[in-house]
Amino acid sequence: MAETSAPVKPARFEISRPVFERTFKINSEQAIRVIRKSYDRLIKSLYAIDVILRIVGQEQAIDEIEAIVSSMIADCAEQLQQEKARLEKLKADNGITETPTYTHPTEFVARIASPQIAQFVELIRLLDQLMIVMDTLWLCQVIDNKHCVEARYHWQQRLQRLANRIVTIERQAHRAAYAQGFGEEVRGAREASGLPSEPEVIVENDVHEDANIVVGDH
């Protein structure tokens, strides 16, 4: 009896997508920690939301998710800008013109594969600028150590919580696509784009909001 061979799966080819590479100097420890702890995971989720789920989901649903993510990033940017403006005024009112140097700045190479990745990169740069003004005021004894430590932690966590919420949105949309029978298409599209076949798991306990966004019928 002749042996039957297993069917050969067609080769998958990686998707060629447009990418900008931009290099920035990041000074503050808080912005460096956001890059180290959240950036890689976040850009995978943003890319999945922006491109991969569009392949299998309804366009209207994906557009709604993207709009929500963009709004979340914009809200955070506005808060950072308002605080930076407040501290800049405090610096000017005290006649401070110096800016500190940092002992261990880092070179941040950002791969911009979607507009929302570009938005979050600018958020990191804005956090860095805010921390520089805050550190200046601390070194010049305008704000005390306790206030500075608390504020640094608050703004670092603000960006990390935002990143976690975006990752959560990706997981919800991913599960919804599987529930609708698009599992193989999702897995194939993710792998062809160099992404993990499944979204990463959030292990931190600081995600307090759940967006409950899914790829539904429209």
From TrEMBL:
It comes from the Bacteria. This is Plasmid-related protein. It comes from Methylomonas methanica.
